[in-house]
Automatic annotation (TrEMBL):
Protein known as: Ig-like domain (Group 2)
Assigned keywords, A-Z: Signal
Position of the signal peptide: 1-20
Keyword Amino-acid biosynthesis applies: no
Residue span(s) of domain BIG2: 44-129, 134-216, 221-306, 321-402, 407-492, 497-578, 583-668, 673-754, 759-844, 849-930, 935-1020, 1025-1111, 1116-1202, 1207-1293, 1298-1378
Length: 1381
């Protein structure tokens, strides 16, 4: 330490000489002796500061103050050991005046005094308050550390006092190691040296209290060393830090940067600090090359034989210069007492960037308001404004920090209830809510304590604050204290044990220079699982090919293959990583256009397109810039790269640069303010033990919505019923009701959560059995079926495994749980485990040859601003096909026209044309996408009106009508609001957009906004009688191994009009089957035949159950019939072929169009969609003849289609029906007539619209295209059809559909006493419909003691005759009943 002191004094003397060379002028103005470009003045001190500027410590404790010198060039120096320290009142506290302990105060009695520091002619002070607080407890960290012998472990001790304050007392107490031959520890430093295998107890004593933890030392042998980053190019004059990671024989890895010995083969080019705290810190001095080497001496055995190992990397110093420095956030505001983390990014002349936060010098313009340390962390003390300045390589950047007087109103700890296995850990979070509506994460500033330290220990006062360690089985409260408030979380430590770990992805391929993030998931004996990626050790078995950091992010260094290993508490898993030499050919930034409010953030993504057809996210590797940081600043690179934050209103261009390419996006920043917070789902009912995600959207004054889920503070009103964490994931515990609340910028949003006592009955995995091609992926789903009939998708919560992971690997990470990958030919059983229940699926992997890859839709034209969902389909040599959208790599040839994401979703950006391509297993398919710019003329919301019950749901749809007659569903792109959120709630969460929930009786409007247009529809809550659920078809058949979609309809009766209405609730219902060995069903009503037999299928909605009968037949396809055959079609038209399977026995003919595999022998003439929902759709591209083939279950058929260059003459709607009935569907058809007399049906390809959706609606752009329905009686609407620039229309009027006849079938009924018969009641309506309403009519009997009718049944009570009557809408029908003895 004396050498350090001497070094600092020599530096000061050196600066004094330089100042003397400038005549000692400290004013900052250059003189004739210095100041020119060839003779710059040396940096001089502008001010010094004592930090913190205010401090309170307990009587009898010690504290180290720090003196900081700010220099004219923006640099900062710690001058604590060079300053002269004094204290005004030494009776309150004494202080060490100079030397290595200079600035250390010792509190003597309660009171307040001033601490002064003087350096040269500069002075600074701090206010010190000595309190009467007494020591409550001690906390030491790390807790129960396990390391190989030879590794040093630095311990920290925090003292917690009675006034909820805490102090670092690491150097003020006494440290001991219980077993010195295992590890020793510095008595006053807390630095432990591990020596040999074993366990020792590390203890710390301070002021009569003590704390202990175990240090476990293994005999693992060091196997290799990894130096990162590899092959770095350094701009001259810059600094950077290398990292050395030691790999051990047991899979453990350890950062040994400070323990290693560093060297540079050419110190003139790059010098490097050899060891110690700054070990690995390199400085690029002059242009040239060098080898950077790290050597580390571990311990190979108990005999302590030295085992020195090393690793090297090349480093090049270039002429690249630092052109700019960016600090984010550019503008921030915090309440006094909070911290604000800043980041600094250096931009270089070659377009690259690097985060230099810890390499930059940081200054605060007013340390009494807020100080900032050299890691960019600002500490606020009192209200005021400061300018934070970062300096790096002669570049400076400023950011503003506003410290407010907002008062703490609430402290929230999340989650407020959690269970962890003994020996494991989790992290709690503390959030402070203030009187101005702001909130801050105060996890690091909070004082954390455990009520039972022998059961649970919690870290406090360090970077891991809030980390909870379960020691032994039991329960304890962990409390966070901050700003005079406290909040607790209940920690339950279970007896569950770690059984295995799994790694995701198991196989990955990335280009050189890019990264791959890995997830390690721990599975426990109680069926639970946990992401332990950041707690694990990671290794790469070939660091020349790929390196990997401490949190599981691998980087491709050069072409080749490396095995990536992750280990956690002795359990390990491996994955294969392939690095290619593919070259970047394109770069894409998404979203292309975005709008945010001032102070909010937009997260951009950068995707690189490569020469081999693959694409890779490079968001964290790209260099991001903003055209005007005064309007919006963007994080330049790294983990926050692409995060743009609005500073002031205006428009900026956000640019990403990578590998010599660039792409840009437009960001608009508005002055809009948040006025409402919307939480979804509004009402939820689930069994105890489940987890479910919530979503929060802020509605702004300009009508826009911003998702603020992760920015909100979440709470549960009853933590015993359910808790919710900071990520808005709720966990249910016991039956009861709780309110989930989100807070954001002073706004509150609520949702109701009801937890039931239903017990898990069984688990069901779908699909039950599947045969898949090698190299493809598939999603397995796990459905939990409960005792009350409810069913819940628990795919992400289940533990997934494969009986042979070399054949089928199944992902167990929460984000991709249940995704199976077929690796090699063979068979495997995939198993899901959830809450003690399990189910399996049999997988057979085959290896047919991939023949063709197709994309749908083909040659699409869309209006600017719309999205297109593409699918990729693979066709194989065995006649099968598979949708491989998610396995494919997607590219857009011109990202200025349209971008496309990894899911195949393209977003139009600008008018023009681009090629959309998909690559799968080295085969590429492409199609054209044309973006036009018609005007948006109208927005429609349907249904125009809907009556729902409280807690009931209704899906609304938004349709955009453009000037070119294009009609498009924009439900997912619209912003949805509700006029009165007391009556109803509307969702904006992904895949739930436009979904309305009834909350209370009344009438309101649901409003959709899209590109400046708005439309609304009526929502009426509370006037329907819910009659039950119908499952359709009521009787169905399915082949063993095949699937069929069932539909559930909720049946309602309007209590005012007695009208019956049906609503599709398929995806909202709970599904289950009677016989699980015969039939399986998933959460969306898709059934799968497992074995021959019959079973009922149940759909449960709003606690009422409906049933359908399903027969499962073990048969095979005997013939496949494709139609139409020998058809001549006009060039440029689109149509759909149909495939019908005829079975050997037991099953009726089945339409298998969407299941078949389709192909064209001449795709330049007719291109056909291979499979899926659009399977069999063909497009006539050019004149000629093509054979269209369909294959299904080993049987095939083909037809001939001739394409003729016919000219479209006119289009027509048929029939010319001008009367529609309220609530009754009517199918219109579109016919195209060509010159020469040919005609073709184009119903599905035409654009349909209604001039007034309150009078009539019509479907378009889907399989129901042309299906119209009357809405309000008496309303008039024009139904318009447009096709290839031609239009036709029909004027319609809506009439009421009234009941004209009620007929009971049979008319004469005979039934034995005590028995019953089923009857049909046919109700005929004025629109021609005849419906069986037996369940919904009103019944009466001339003698209920003889015959008793109820729903569709008539029961015989006693012998005799009676007349039964069915009544519906004041129309009646009779039948005679004879009851025999």
């Amino acid at each position: 330490m004396q050498m350090t002191k001497t070094f600092y004094r020599l530096c000061v003397l050196w600066m004094t000489f330089l100042l003397a060379a400038c005549n000692g002028d400290n004013s900052g103005f250059p003189t004739s002796e210095c100041g020119g470009p060839d003779n710059p003045c040396a940096p001089y001190i502008t001010s010094i500061a004592v930090v913190p500027p205010v401090k309170a410590i307990a009587d009898g404790t010690q504290f180290q103050f720090q003196a900081i010198a700010n220099y004219s060039d923006g640099s900062v120096q710690d001058i604590s050991t060079l300053s002269q320290w004094s204290i005004v009142d030494s009776s309150i506290a004494t202080i060490v005046s100079d030397g290595t302990q200079g600035g250390v105060v010792d509190a003597k009695q309660v009171g307040t005094t001033t601490v002064n520091a003087q350096y040269q002619t500069y002075q600074a002070s701090s206010e010190l308050t000595v309190t009467s607080a007494v020591l409550d407890s001690l906390s030491i960290s790390p807790v129960n550390k396990t390391v190989p012998a030879g590794i040093a472990v630095q311990y920290q001790a925090m003292a917690v006092f009675s006034d909820a304050s805490q102090q670092d007392v690491t150097k003020f107490g006494n440290w001991q190691s219980g077993t010195a031959n295992v590890a020793t520890i510095g008595p006053q430093t807390g630095a432990a040296s591990t020596l040999s295998q074993g366990t020792t107890q590390i203890s710390f004593n301070y002021q009569g209290k003590s704390a202990q933890t175990d240090l476990n030392v293994t005999n693992a042998v060091i196997s290799s060393l990894q130096v990162t980053p590899k092959n770095l190019a350094k701009p001259v004059g810059t600094k950077g830090k290398y990292t050395a990671t030691a790999y051990y024989s047991d899979g453990h890895s350890e950062d040994v940067t400070q323990l290693a010995t560093w060297s540079s083969s050419n110190a003139r080019a790059v010098s490097i600090v050899a060891n110690g705290t700054d070990g690995g810190l390199a400085t690029a001095n002059e242009i040239g090359t060098t080898q950077i080497t790290a050597s580390y001496q571990g311990i190979a055995s108990f005999s302590k034989m030295s085992n020195t190992i090393s690793d090297s990397t090349a480093a090049t110093v270039t002429q690249i210069t630092v052109t700019d420095l960016v600090v984010t956030p550019a503008k921030a505001s915090v309440a006094a007492g909070n911290v604000q983390q800043y980041q600094a990014f250096a931009l270089f002349s070659d377009g690259t960037s690097r985060e230099v936060t810890e390499l930059a010098s940081w200054q605060s313009s007013n340390n009494s308001v807020a100080s900032i340390n050299q890691k960019g962390l600002a500490d606020s003390y009192r209200s005021g404004d400061v300018v934070v300045t970062a300096t790096y390589a002669s570049q400076q950047a400023d950011a503003s920090l506003n410290v407010t007087q907002a008062q703490l109103t609430e402290l929230v700890v999340s989650p407020n209830k959690v269970t962890i296995p003994a020996g494991h850990q989790t992290r709690l979070q503390a959030l402070a809510v203030y009187s101005d509506g702001s909130s801050n994460d105060v996890t690091l500033q909070s004082v954390w304590t455990s009520a039972e330290q022998n059961l649970v220990q919690v870290e406090t006062g360090n970077i891991s604050a809030g980390t909870v360690h379960g020691l032994v089985q039991g329960q304890a409260d962990v409390t966070a204290k901050f700003g005079g408030m406290e909040q607790s979380s209940v920690i339950t430590v279970s007896s569950a044990t770690l059984t295995s770990v799994s790694i995701s992805p198991a196989n990955a391929t990335i280009p050189t220079g890019t990264t791959q993030s890995y997830v390690l998931t721990a599975q426990y004996s109680d069926g639970s699982k946990q992401d332990v990626s950041t707690l694990s050790s990671w290794q790469s078995n070939n660091t020349d090919i790929a390196t990997i950091n401490a949190i599981g992010v691998a980087r491709g260094e050069q072409q080749g293959t490396s095995q990536i290993g992750g280990c956690y508490l002795g359990q390990c898993a491996t994955a294969n990583l392939v690095i290619t030499q593919a070259v970047v050919t394109g770069l894409q930034v998404t979203p292309a256009t975005a709008t945010i409010a001032d102070g909010q953030s937009q997260y951009y993504q950068a995707t690189a397109f490569y020469s081999d057809g693959t694409s890779k996210g490079v968001t964290q590797l790209a260099t991001w810039t903003s055209s005007d940081t005064g309007i919006a600043a963007v994080s330049s690179t790294g983990t926050t790269g692409g995060q743009a934050t609005g500073v002031d209103p205006g428009s900026v261009t956000i640019v990403a640069r990578y590998a010599g390419l660039q792409s840009q996006a437009t960001l608009n920043v508005t002055v809009a303010t948040a006025v409402k917070l919307i939480v979804s789902p509004a009402i939820t009912k689930v069994p105890a033990g489940l987890s479910l995600p919530y979503h929060a959207d802020a509605l702004y004054t300009d009508g826009t919505l911003q998702e603020v889920t992760l920015l909100s503070v979440w709470q549960s009103s009853d933590g015993d019923v359910a808790s919710i964490d900071a990520s808005a994931n709720a966990r249910t515990f016991v039956a009861g009701q709780t309110t989930i609340t989100a807070q954001y910028l002073g706004l509150d949003g609520e949702a109701s959560l009801t937890v039931t006592a239903a017990v898990l009955d069984h688990l069901e995995v779908t699909p039950n059995a599947v045969t898949v091609p090698k190299g493809t992926n598939g999603q397995f789903e796990a459905t939990a079926i409960y005792s009350d009939g409810s069913s819940v998708d628990v795919t992400s919560s289940s533990n997934w495994s494969s009986s042979d992971s070399s054949v089928v690997n199944v992902d167990n990470s929460s984000a991709h749980a249940g995704v199976g990958t077929a690796l090699t030919v063979g068979s495997a059983v995939v198993t899901a485990n959830y809450s003690g229940m399990s189910d399996t699926s049999s997988v057979t992997v085959v290896a047919p040859t991939l023949l063709e890859l197709t994309i749908s839709p083909q040659n699409k034209t869309v209006p600017l601003g719309l999205e297109v969902q593409y699918e990729a389909h693979a066709r194989y040599s065995d006649g099968t096909s598979k949708t491989v959208t998610l396995e494919s790599n997607w590219q857009s040839s011109l990202t200025t026209v349209a971008t496309i994401n990894s899911d195949g979703l393209a977003a139009s950006v600008y008018t023009g044309g681009t090629q959309i391509s998909a690559t799968f297993e080295s085969i590429t398919a492409s199609t054209s996408l044309t973006v036009t710019e018609p005007m948006l003329t109208e927005l429609q919301v349907t249904p125009a009106t809907s009556i729902i019950n409280i807690q009931d749901l209704q899906q609304y749809k938004a349709t955009a009508v453009f000037s070119d007659k294009t009609v498009t569903d924009v439900t997912t792109g619209a912003t949805w609001t509700i006029a009165d959120d007391v009556i109803a709630h509307v969702d904006n969460a992904r895949f739930r957009e436009g979904l309305v929930t009834g909350l209370s009786s009344g009438q309101t409007s649901v409003v959709a906004s899209y590109y400046g247009k708005t439309a609304n529809a009526e929502v009426v809550v509370g006037s329907l009688a819910y009659l039950g659920v119908d499952v359709e078809p009521a009787d169905s058949m399915v082949k063993v191994g095949d699937t069929k979609q069932l539909t559930a309809y909720a049946v309602y009766k309007d209590v005012n009009t007695n009208k019956i209405s049906f609503k599709d609730v398929t995806t909202l219902s709970d599904w289950r089957v009677q016989h699980r060995d015969t039939l399986a069903v998933n959460t969306t009503g898709l059934i799968e035949g497992k074995s021959a037999g019959s079973s009922e299928v149940y759909a449960i909605y709003q606690n009422i159950e409906g049933a359908g009968q399903v027969s499962v037949v073990d048969t095979y396809v005997s013939q496949l019939v494709v139609t139409p055959d020998n058809e001549t079609v006009p060039e440029g038209t689109v149509g759909r072929y149909k495939a019908v399977a005829k079975y050997h026995q037991g099953l009726p003919d089945e339409d298998v169009t969407s299941k078949a595999t389709w192909s064209s022998n001449n795709p330049t003439v007719v291109q056909v969609v291979t499979t899926g929902e659009s399977g069999g759709s063909g497009e006539a591209l050019s004149a000629g003849t093509a054979q269209i083939k369909a294959e299904f279950d080993g049987v095939e058929d083909e037809v001939t289609t001739t394409v003729s260059p016919l000219v479209l003459a006119q289009v027509a709607i048929e029939p010319r029906q001008d009367i529609l009935y309220s609530g009754t569907p009517f199918q219109y058809h579109a016919i195209a007539y060509y010159q020469g007399g040919a005609s073709k049906g184009v119903t599905l390809d035409a654009e349909w619209s209604s001039s007034d959706t309150t009078a009539a609606t019509i479907e378009t752009g889907n399989t129901k295209a042309g299906l119209a329905q009357g809405v309000y009686e008496g309303g008039r609407a024009t139904i318009t059809m447009s096709y290839q620039g031609m239009t036709d229309f029909v004027e319609t009027q809506t009439y009421p559909a009234t009941t004209t006849k009620v007929e009971i079938v049979p008319q004469n009924i005979t039934v034995a006493a005590g028995d019953f018969v089923e009857v049909t009641v046919n109700v005929t309506f004025s629109d021609g419909r005849v419906e069986n309403y037996a369940k919904y009519v009103s019944w009466s009997s001339s003698d209920m003691n003889i015959a008793y009718p109820s729903k569709q049944y008539v029961s015989g009570i006693s012998a005799g005759t009676a007349t039964i009557t069915a009544s519906f809408e004041n129309v009646t029908g009779d039948a005679s009943v004879t009851v025999t003895p």
